[in-house]
Amino acid sequence: MTETRTTVQRAYDALTAEDDGRVCRDISDTACNQQPQNFLRHASALGLNKAADGLADPKLVLSWLMTHLGAPAALIGLLVPIREAGSLLPQLFTAARIRAMARRKWAWAGAALGQGAGAALMLGAALTLEGLVAGLLILTGLAVLALSRSVASVAYKDVLGKTIDKGQRGTVTGLAASWSSVVVIGFALVLIAFSDARFAVVAGALALAAGAWVLAGVIFAGLAEDPGAQDGGANGWQAAIANLGYLREDPQLTRFIAARGLLTATALAPPWLVVLAAGDGGAALEGLGALVLASALAALVSGYVWGRLADRSSRRVLIWTGISGATGMVLTLIFWALGLSGTLWAMPLALFAIMVAHQGVRLGRSTYLVDMAAKDRRAIYTAIANTVIGAILLASGIFGAIAGLFGAAVTLGLFALMALGGAWVAYGLKELGEA
Fold first, then answer.
1. N or C: which end of the chain has fewer CB within 10 A?
2. May I ask the CATH class of domain 27-221?
């Protein structure tokens, strides 16, 4: 036991570069003593969670899978709305119940098992069915996954705050993000290397994702977590409705949410890139590995640049992400029109531009909201934004119907206009650096 503890301590010291005499600042003495093993559990469980997210990415992997299985385009258009809105809106109903739990690690662990079950359901549908029925069951599995993810999202920040000291929270989440991104890049390389067995690789990835979520839940359940407060939280849905009055009081908040809503085009567009290219002789089906690699590299290389720009002006980040996202979508349409979808570089290049923009939207919107809101209104403004954006994402399933009637090219064109509209609305936001 002592030898195991020493090994854990050494691993913790190597990852954090901390000395043994460090005093924790904002967690209990008990939690401080348990921090080395808790740190490794966080890094392992969260990394497995993020890696599984990449292996079962609805924007690319699941949209490819449904296209391969012959699911209707209208169902493919529901992948991102179900995944995003399903992760957001249920928090309004589950947050109060989770706050009533003394040890919320069980909520996250259970949610991880739920995500694993959702992935397993999607895998079963892919292996045994095709067409409309396969598409419906994959969406059902994704809904289970998204609902579970919403529970995990509510629970995680609280557990992190109780078990990891303030100076190490960014380190542990950054470590998890780094090693999980390597897994996703490896997955992309396997897809490229074994291009003749893409379906088998994707099915294997879903199986690995399901196993990773189950393992993450088991690891997280082993955290040493002190009991926490079980009261003080209002019902999320009632609070969100009551707080909508702030939209009338603060026009900047209203404008920010409008910009953010229009910029969701960067998240909604990638599945239609896959559908559009797949119609060109199945080119997207052959180039899935390159698309996944482009997406992973976009996330890996763009975060630091957008972060530096956001420190100077998050408003400008929102403007430029709208323009760059629209550029990527227009490039997609140009490549498709010129018959370049089957080339190794065209669609991955367009997707890279879209995903770089998407990373900027995610960073810019969070930075702007935190900078815009007064300290006592940040939680309220976040709840309002999440409620409205969740509703917008849920309604965005209509784009699947548009694609079914007019084609994926028209749908991508509409997304490009949305992104440009988001840039224009963001242009009217107040520059927060101004006096």
1. C
2. mainly alpha
Q: Are the C-beta atoms of residues 417 and 286 closer than 8 Å to each other?
A: no
Instruction: Determine the CATH number of domain 234-430.
Output: 1.20.1250.20
Own/partner pairs, 178-182, CB within 8 angstroms, 24+ separation = 179/43, 179/47, 179/51, 180/46, 180/47, 180/48, 180/49, 180/50, 180/51, 180/53, 180/54, 181/50, 181/54, 181/296, 181/299, 181/300
- Are the C-beta atoms of 147 and 90 separated by less than 8 Å? yes
Domain ranges of the chain: 27-221, 234-430
Task: Provide the residue-wise pLDDT of the chain in tens; the chain has 435 residues.
Answer: 555 557 777 777 666 765 444 567 777 788 788 888 999 999 999 999 999 999 999 999 999 999 999 999 889 889 999 998 998 888 777 776 777 788 889 999 999 999 999 999 999 999 999 999 999 999 999 999 999 998 898 788 778 888 888 667 767 877 887 788 889 999 999 999 998 899 999 999 999 999 999 999 999 999 988 886 555 455 556 666 666 777 888 899 999 999 999 999 999 999 989 888 776 544 445 678 999 999 989 888 887 788 778 878 889 999 999 999 999 999 999 999 998 887 888 999 999 999 999 988 988 887 888 788 776 677 677 777 877 888 888 888 787 777 767 888 999 999 999 999 999 999 999 997 543
